[in-house]
Amino acid sequence: MTELEKRRSAAPVPSGWEYAPAPESRDIVRIEERYGHFVGGEWLEPRETYATIAPATEERLAEVGQATPEEVHAAIAAARGAFENGWSELPGSDRAKYLFRIARILQERSREFAVLESLNGGKPIKESRDVDLPLAAAHFFYYAGWADKLEYAFPNRRPRPIGVAGQIIPWNFPLLMLAWKIAPALAAGNTVVLKPAETTPLTALLFCDVVRQAELPAGVVNIVTGDGRAGAELVKGDVDKVAFTGSTEVGKAIQRELAGTGKKLTLELGGKAANIVFDDCALDQAVEGIVNGIYFNQGHVCCAGSRLFVQESIYEDVVKKLKRRMQTLRVGDPLDKNTDVGAINSRQQLDKIRELVASGEEEGAEIYQPPCRLPEKGYWFAPTVFTDVAQSYRIAQEEIFGPVLSVLTFRTPAEAVEKANNTPYGLSAGIWTEKGSRILWMAKRLRAGVVWANTYNRFDPASPFGGYKESGFGREGGRHGLEPYLEFE
Ligand code: NDP
């Protein structure tokens, strides 16, 4: 043991320290008792409702609509009317003004949105404040810039809007996914009907207020809430394009439903990303990247670095440093500004995580969870790492969508590529090495839509995002993100 290591082990990490609570105030956001569907610029009184809760406390937050088929079709009709009666004919520079307005309003009201996002979804306020909200506004700014330049984006191809887009989004980044869907669709001259996830409808409903504030023409954006039945109805309805983000299983069902209908489709589905650490990397930086890759947003991230591949020569060191770093993660109240890991989004998701973690233990992997006190109410899961994992284990194969990391090893770059690609998914990957040539060699061979080098979970509206294989098809973000919303001559 070196002198430095001796001193470190004598001075334990400060896991016993008590941090003074630093809660963000809830007062900034006003939650209505009951919400309807936002159709044609008006609130439609819902026929059926359900309660949406705060996963951190199980507190009931509001009553929201469970859209019936008639309500979904009314929303589609409103979107069709708005498309035909002006929006699609509006000059791009006018559409851009609306998108700019929305972006500015999101910035102005960002604290309100961040608090609501953390309340309804369970994610730490520092993530909704510093990641979700700035990125959501950035997407509207970015696509506002394209709205009057479509001819330049696609020269000699005469781009035209396609009509009404039906958009279905998940619960892990509710407002950000809304922005990814709505901004390019509107920039391209389409109108939309969006269905947020059953467990996280509130920021999408607050967004309707932004739509009104920006004086967007009625019917251009319509929001219907409810569970998967509402989503399925939207897919079946009179829409010209479907954009879906969610599980591979539902993505496949949608693809089957749309086969032969001529409706356009983009799917952004699950992942089981490899985060690959070579022995020449900046180790402490890589450990931060590993932690960010899997514990960010409780691991509810389709591109989460959930399979860690470590070069054998540094395996012991990486695992030691990782466990030490995990001890400093603070799990708890999503509205506390000190919190690193918030609540699991729903009881159903918690059960799924528990089931997969139990399978990891049964199959023979070694589990480590840092000591941490979990709140008694609500849905919680401690940050978890599995070592001694074989590639065949379920925890190395299936998407857990929780704060659970599986560590595997490799010896050569070729072996790393082979193991990393050994998955039905292909959404993202990470590489940690100081050699630029190795980054390029690896990136060329990894079957993943996004490959990060010496960083992880970096997003930019100008950069396209999407998958290969069972992670879906089509790209969101960048100029590529406009294409699925356009027709060409
Ligand atoms: P789903 O795929 O069921 O949900 C995604 C969206 O689709 C939600 O709005 C959902 O509504 C809706 N939906 C559900 N069924 C249908 C249907 N038949 N037709 C049209 N829309 C439908 O994901 P889950 O929430 O059930 O999560 C299950 C797993 O999926 C997770 O554990 C994770 O592994 C993966 N997942 C991946 C995501 C990603 O970003 N790629 C995001 C979310 C989940 P409702 O909310 O009511 O179910």
Give an overview of the whole structure.
There is one protein chain. With 489 residues, the protein is α/β, with parallel strands linked by helices. It folds into two domains: 26-269 and 468-487, Aldehyde Dehydrogenase, Chain A, domain 1, CATH 3.40.605; 271-453, Aldehyde Dehydrogenase, Chain A, domain 2. Helices cover 39% and strands 16% of the residues. The chain has helices at 3-10, 69-84, 92-108, 110-121, 125-146, 150-153, 174-187, 202-213, 228-236, 248-258, 283-295, 315-326, 347-363, 394-397, 413-420, 436-445; strands at 37-39, 42-44, 49-54, 59-65, 160-161, 164-168, 191-195, 221-223, 241-245, 264-268, 274-277, 307-311, 366-368, 384-387, 404-410, 428-432, 450-453, 472-473, 486-487. The longest helix is centred in the N-terminal third of the chain and has 22 residues, at 125-146. The termini are far apart. The model has no long low-confidence stretch (mean pLDDT 96). Bound molecules: NADPH dihydro-nicotinamide-adenine-dinucleotide phosphate. NADPH dihydro-nicotinamide-adenine-dinucleotide phosphate is lined by residues 168-172, 195, 197-198, 227-228, 231-232, 235, 245-247, 250, 253-254, 268-270, 302, 349, 352, 399, 401.
Which labels suit this protein?
16 helices; alpha/beta; 6-stranded mixed beta sheet; Aldehyde Dehydrogenase, Chain A, domain 1; binds NADPH dihydro-nicotinamide-adenine-dinucleotide phosphate; Aldehyde Dehydrogenase, Chain A, domain 2
Structural class: alpha/beta
Estimate the helix proportion, in percent.
25-40%
In DSSP terms (H or I, runs of 4 or more residues), the helix count works out at 16
**What does the average pLDDT come to?**
96
